[in-house]
Amino acid sequence: MPENVEFIGEGGARLRGRLFLPDSPAPAPVVVLQPGMGDLARMFWPLAPWFTAAGLGVLGYDHRNFGHSEGEPRREVDPWRQSLDLRHALTALERRDDIDGDRLGLWGMSMGAVNCLYTAAFDWRVAAVAAIAPPVSGLALRSSLYTGEARIELLRRLHDDRLARAAGEPPARIPLAARGDSTEIAGFRDDRVLATVTGLAENVPGYRNEITLSSLDNVIAAEVAAHAPRITAPTMLALTESDELSGLHDARAMFDNLPGVKEKHEYPGTHHDALTTHLPAICAQSIEFLTKHLAGEPGERGQRISDWLG
A single GO molecular function, which one (predicted)? Predict the structure, then answer.
């Protein structure tokens, strides 16, 4: 049976989710799931039986500011603070007797995948990573989302929002997804993404087609590719060939700079296809990869520290 859990994240925020453990008497390896931008943990809990059937435990929790977790302002995305929270999640798991703290893995989608890569770069406890369609360069992401006058308008709006929030006003909010032909500022401007988000908002309790405007500022500041040489844990990337957000060229370059064991799978389609059409195949590949690299060997912790320190 799943267990409702909570732990203290960065700055004291209480983060809440569910822990699923395999039916095994031994301390289990555990994979921490990282939802994408605006997503809730409950959307990924149905994947848990796939992991537990392979002998892997799963922790899925809501990011700060979302769902059942604490944090203000609500629905603000902050990859850096989410990554710090993820390190607290590892600590919470490591303290449990029914979990093998030497065998902790990460699995994330889109911006959740960025969190996984950031954390692997700065925390030697990460034993393996599966990153699905990570936007590895915030600069490239900004260039793909906004050009010309639209970019100037985005920067103006972000500046005005900073001044307003400093004066005590509530944060400006934007749609997570808007129509593909829309000129409004949104997290995504894509008809397929809008249809998916609209369906989720109608069917998933607590889910909304909304984020703070400053979430975009936080997302486009994330440059995880620069930290590739620090990621020594076995890492799998799942990419799509026409990803308008992640940028195949940037993701391939990051993959080439990973110094350790690595595996890359590429699929046809867009960013959205990686998270929908190809998700069953990607899940199967990532579970196989994580199971293999979380098997554990004597002395692995010492070797992992040595590799991470270089």
Answer: carboxylic ester hydrolase activity
